[in-house]
Amino acid sequence: MASQLTGGVAARSRVVSGMRPTGRLHLGHLVGALGNWVPLQEQYDCFYFVADWHALTSDFADTSQLTAYAYENVADWMGAGLDPERSTFFIQSLVPEHAELYLLLSMVVPVPWLERVPTYKEQQDALKDKDLSSIGFLGYPLLQTADVAMYDARFVPVGEDQVAHLELAREAVRRFNNFFGGEALVEPQPLLTPFGRLPGLDGDKKMSKSLGNTIHLSDSSDELKKKVMRMYTDPKRVRADIPGTVEGNPVFTYHDAFNPNKADVEDLKARYRAGKVGDVEVKTKLANALNAYLDPIRERRAAALATPEQLKEILFEGSRRARKVAGETMGRVREAMRIVYR
Ligand code: TRP
Questions:
Q1: Residue 155's domain is classified under what CATH number?
Q2: pTM, 2 dp
Q3: Which tens digit of pLDDT belongs to each residue from 17-75?
Q4: Around Cβ 134, how many Cβ atoms within 10 Å?
Q5: Count of the separate structural domains present in the chain
Q6: Is residue 165, in this structure, part of any structural domain at all?
Q7: Ligand 1: does its nearest atom lie under 6 Å from the Cβ of 20?
Q8: Closest ligand 1 atom to the C-alpha of 153?
Q9: Are residues 123 and 264 in the same domain?
Q10: Ligand 1 centre distance from Cα of residue 230 (Å)
Q11: Is the CB of 25 under 6 A from ligand 1?
């Protein structure tokens, strides 16, 4: 990818991604989105934000935890290795330009485009207890379009479930550019996470808050151990001397993902298949590996939460930086649309 030269320093392409502050982060986030966000800091000018308005699209009725989750999530990010010195962290609602761009895009994007986005119907069917009939929920992918177009982001690191949203974003940007000439906005591409999806503790294909099958980054080592000992495993194996199945067994999926001692994992798999190891040993070793993996994350997370003023300042400062870029983009957009009063 060609990088522009500015004052002798190669300007890095920009990457943008966001997360909704709807709860504490778990291991699924870590192997999914976050695990991808961290290494991108090396190569890109990364803007990572708390999508607090997006959280309202499904949870508008209860905002009591919103700001607390926002701070906790950012502490989780720092725990996972995101660095506010290298990346810009900001809060969506502290950059109100996102609402302006969303509004302007909403003038050119047909309603059926949004109704056709697969997550729209899927979420309505899956979350029957929530009222997802609002304009805001329909507009979710368009607000997301504004989030990324605002920063000329070419790449958006997301999980597979977000691909359809970025498809809509590209279509919306193209339509806007067609009407108002030239290349006012940049078309974003998804950057998929390599590992993909982590199964839940209950063996469900996905670890997710709504299924209650998660390990949080904030869980203590005791809580973690309890959860691992109760994890779903091969149900046919009612005794330790019965040969078990490793493939698709979440206990081993986690071993593969988090246990750095590959030789030990292979030995456990061989003995499991042969009916020569008890679940307690397999799970205890997994709990130990997970705790070793999470310990430094927990420490950095706790350090961030121990200095709330500093955490707040990181977000305020990042939001000011983001707003500067957003102001420039909106200047360009208003020019393109000829809505400039002089
Ligand atoms: N929709 C994303 C999710 O649920 C969150 C999000 C909002 C986002 N705006 C974004 C992600 C912009 C990437 C870019 O995970």
A1: 3.40.50.620
A2: 0.92
A3: 999 999 999 999 998 888 899 999 999 999 999 999 999 998 898 999 999 999 999 99
A4: 13
A5: 2
A6: yes
A7: yes
A8: 14
A9: no
A10: 32
A11: no
